[in-house]
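Try this one yourself first.
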C-alpha cells in the first residue's frame, strides 16, 4: 500500500466510555465484519476482559475507508489501521508502544461523565509522541449527556475550539462515518524510508495455543517479507518469518509488509519473551544497524507471595504460572517457602491490576485456590559496609547496619469534583504524599497531582480514594524513580517464632500502628492452645506491641462420659480432620483461615 493512503490511529478512552462499542461500529461501517457476524465487543477476546470490561491486550485491525467527498478528504480508498491500546495504568509501557505505532489518536470521552484521570494520563502520553488528537464525545444519545459542558472541557485541555469536538453515539452509529472521515483528513500518513533495511517496531505480542506467538508490528522503514530470516535487535536472536499479514479482523496472510503498514507476524517462537514489546525487528542479511528508540525491559513493580491453599496443588500452580508467562513478558516468579504458608512463589507484577488479573486467571482458568500475601514494592537497601540488597520480600529485609533505604515513588494524578479536594489532600498527606500541583479542568472539576510512595498506593489507596469521594475520583500513577525514606521492618511473632508472611516494611512513624493492628487481629483469630501464646510485633529485637492468647485444657473425650466407643472414635477422627486445615507455626497451631483473614482484609 502507498504510505500516503495509510492512517494509523488508536482510541484513548476511559473504561466504559465506549471504546469497544465504537470499534464495533467502525468494523461494521467499513464492512470488515458482516452484520450477522457482529457480536458485541468483537475485539475483546479474553473472557475475563469481557466480564470485567477491561482491555488487557492490544491488537490492530485494518479498515478500508473511502472518505465522503464533502469532508474534504481524497475519495480514494484509504487503509485505516486501528490499534487498540490497553487502558490501565499498569500497562503504561505497552500503551506507549501502541501510541508510538500511530500518527494520530481519537480521544473518546463519555458525554455524561467527562474526562477521567487515566484518559488524561494517556492523552499526555499521546501528546509526548506528537500524535494528532481528534477529540470526540460519545454517548450523545444519553439523556444525561452534557455535550456542551464537556466539549468546552476537552477544548480547554487540548487547546482547540469547542466546535472542533466531534459528537457521536457509538450505540446508534451517529457521527461515526464523520469520525472516520476526520481520521483520513487530519491524521498524517506514516513516513519512512522505502529503500532502507527493514525496521519494524513490536507493539504487542500474544501467545496463541495453536500458532505460537503472534507478534504485532508497525513497519517503519523498508519491507519485511514472508520466508525471510529476521532478527530481534535487543537479543540478536534470529527466526524465520513463517507468516506475515494483516488483521481484518481475522488474520489474513500477505507476501510482506512495508513502510507504514501495521500487521502481525509469526515465527514459531512459543514464548512472548522472545518477541518483546518495544523491540525492533530487522532482516538477518543486510539488516539495519540501529534499532528504533524506546525499547525497555518490563520491570515488575509489585511483588506478592502466592501459595496454594492446598499444599498438594503446588505443581499445578507452577504449571499455571509457566503457561501464563508464555503470554506475559512482565510476569516473573520464583519458588519461595514460608514457615506459615508452605511452598509457593514470589511473583512480580507491573502493578495492582496486573496482580489482580493474574490471581483471578489462576483461580478461574486453572481452578486453583490461592493465598496471596500483602503486595509489597521493591526496596533497595544500602548497608554501612557498602553492600547493597534488593528486597522483594519483606521477610528478607536485611538485619544489621543499614545506611539508607530507597523506595519507589510514583506521580499520582487524581481527577475529582472540586468538593472533594479536602478529603483527597488529607488522604494523600496520610500516605506520605507531596503535593505537586492542582488545576481546575472546569469550574467544578479539579486535577490534583502528588508524589506518593508506591508502597502507599498499592495498599488500598484506590479503595480509600473511591470511598472518600463517593466513587467520583479517578486515579492514575506512573513510576518516577525512588526516594530515601526511614523505613523499618516489623515482624510478627507467635510464641516467639516469626511469622514470615506477616513481616512488613513500613515507615517508622507507621510501624507502631501496623504492629498493634495485626497483633489485635491475630488474637481474635487464633484459638486457645494448651499453653499460653504471646503474639508480639517487633522491630528487630524491640517489641512494640503484645497480646496474649490464654491457655485452655483441650480434652475432647471428656464430653463423652465414657461409654459409647464408636462415638469417641468419631470425635477423635473429627479432630484429626480439623487439624489438617491447621498450620504449625513453631509450636502453635494456627487455622489457615486466620492467615487468609489477616492477609485479605485491608
Ligand atoms: P472497556 O472495554 O472496559 O475499556 O470499555 P469500553 O470503553 O470499550 O466501553 P464499552 O464499549 O464496553 O461501553 C461501555 C458501556 O457503554 C456499554 O454498556 C455500552 O453499551 C455503552 N455505550 C457505548 N457507547 C454508547 C453510546 O454511544 N450510547 C449509549 N447510550 N451507550 C453506549
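Now uncover the answer:
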Amino acid at each position: 500500500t502507498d504510505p500516503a493512503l495509510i492512517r494509523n490511529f488508536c482510541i484513548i478512552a476511559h473504561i466504559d466510555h465506549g471504546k469497544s462499542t465504537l470499534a464495533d461500529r467502525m468494523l461494521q461501517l467499513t464492512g470488515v465484519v458482516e452484520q450477522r457476524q457482529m457480536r458485541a465487543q468483537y475485539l475483546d477476546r479474553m473472557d475475563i476482559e469481557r466480564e470485567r470490561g477491561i482491555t488487557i491486550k492490544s491488537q490492530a485491525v485494518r479498515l478500508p475507508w473511502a472518505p465522503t467527498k464533502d469532508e474534504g478528504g481524497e475519495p480514494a480508498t484509504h487503509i485505516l489501521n486501528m490499534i487498540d491500546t490497553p487502558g490501565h495504568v499498569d500497562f503504561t509501557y505497552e500503551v506507549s508502544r501502541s501510541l508510538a505505532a500511530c500518527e494520530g489518536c481519537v480521544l473518546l470521552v463519555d458525554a455524561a461523565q467527562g474526562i477521567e484521570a487515566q484518559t488524561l494520563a494517556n492523552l499526555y502520553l499521546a501528546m509526548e509522541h506528537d500524535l494528532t488528537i481528534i477529540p470526540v464525545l460519545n454517548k450523545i444519545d444519553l439523556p444525561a449527556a452534557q455535550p456542551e459542558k464537556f466539549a468546552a472541557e476537552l477544548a480547554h485541555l487540548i487547546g482547540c475550539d469547542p466546535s472542533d469536538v466531534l459528537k457521536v453515539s457509538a450505540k446508534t452509529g451517529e457521527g461515526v462515518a464523520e469520525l472516520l472521515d476526520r481520521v483520513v483528513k487530519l491524521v498524517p500518513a506514516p513516513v519512512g524510508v522505502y529503500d532502507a533495511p527493514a525496521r519494524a517496531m513490536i507493539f504487542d505480542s500474544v501467545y496463541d495455543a495453536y500458532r505460537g506467538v503472534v507478534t504485532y508490528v508497525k513497519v517503519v522503514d523498508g519491507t519485511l517479507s514472508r520466508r525471510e530470516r529476521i532478527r530481534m535487535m535487543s537479543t540478536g536472536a534470529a527466526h524465520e518469518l513463517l507468516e506475515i499479514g494483516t488483521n481484518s479482523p481475522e488474520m489474513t496472510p500477505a507476501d510482506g509488509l512495508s513502510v507504514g503498514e501495521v500487521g502481525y507476524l509469526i515465527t514459531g517462537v512459543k514464548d512472548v519473551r522472545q518477541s518483546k514489546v518495544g523491540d525492533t525487528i530487522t532482516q538477518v542479511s543486510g539488516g539495519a544497524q540501529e534499532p528504533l528508540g524506546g525499547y525497555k525491559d518490563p520491570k515488575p513493580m509489585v511483588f506478592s507471595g502466592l501459595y496454594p491453599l492446598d499444599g498438594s496443588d503446588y505443581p499445578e500452580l507452577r504449571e499455571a504460572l509457566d503457561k501464563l508467562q508464555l503470554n506475559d513478558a512482565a510476569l516473573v516468579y520464583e519458588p519461595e517457602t514460608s514457615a506459615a504458608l508452605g511452598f509457593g512463589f514470589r511473583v512480580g507484577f507491573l502493578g495492582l491490576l496486573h496482580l489482580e488479573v493474574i490471581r483471578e486467571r489462576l483461580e478461574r482458568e486453572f481452578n486453583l485456590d490461592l493465598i496471596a500475601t500483602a503486595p509489597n514494592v521493591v526496596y533497595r537497601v544500602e548497608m554501612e559496609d557498602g553492600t547493597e540488597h534488593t528486597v522483594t520480600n519483606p521477610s528478607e529485609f536485611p538485619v544489621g547496619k543499614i545506611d539508607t533505604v530507597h523506595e519507589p515513588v510514583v506521580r499520582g494524578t487524581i481527577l475529582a469534583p472540586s468538593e472533594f479536594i479536602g478529603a483527597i489532600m488529607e488522604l494523600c498527606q496520610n500516605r506520605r504524599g507531596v503535593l505537586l500541583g492542582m488545576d481546575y479542568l472546569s469550574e467544578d472539576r479539579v486535577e490534583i497531582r502528588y508524589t506518593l510512595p508506591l508502597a502507599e498506593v498499592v495498599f488500598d489507596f484506590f479503595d480509600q480514594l473511591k470511598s472518600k469521594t463517593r466513587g467520583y475520583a479517578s486515579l492514575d500513577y506512573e513510576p518516577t524513580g525512588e526516594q530515601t525514606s526511614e523505613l523499618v521492618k516489623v515482624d510478627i511473632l507467635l510464641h516467639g517464632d516469626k511469622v514470615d508472611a506477616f513481616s512488613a516494611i513500613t515507615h517508622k512513624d507507621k510501624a507502631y500502628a501496623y504492629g498493634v493492628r495485626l497483633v489485635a487481629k491475630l488474637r481474635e483469630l487464633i484459638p486457645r492452645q494448651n499453653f499460653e501464646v504471646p503474639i508480639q510485633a517487633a522491630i528487630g529485637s524491640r517489641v512494640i506491641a503484645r497480646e496474649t492468647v490464654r491457655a485452655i485444657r483441650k480434652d475432647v473425650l471428656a464430653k463423652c462420659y465414657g461409654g459409647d466407643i464408636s462415638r469417641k472414635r468419631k470425635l477423635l477422627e473429627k479432630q484429626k480432620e480439623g487439624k489438617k486445615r491447621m498450620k504449625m507455626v513453631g509450636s502453635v497451631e494456627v487455622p489457615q483461615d486466620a492467615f487468609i483473614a489477616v492477609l485479605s482484609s485491608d
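Discussion: The chain has 14 helices and 34 strands. Confidence is low (pLDDT under 50) at residues 48-58.
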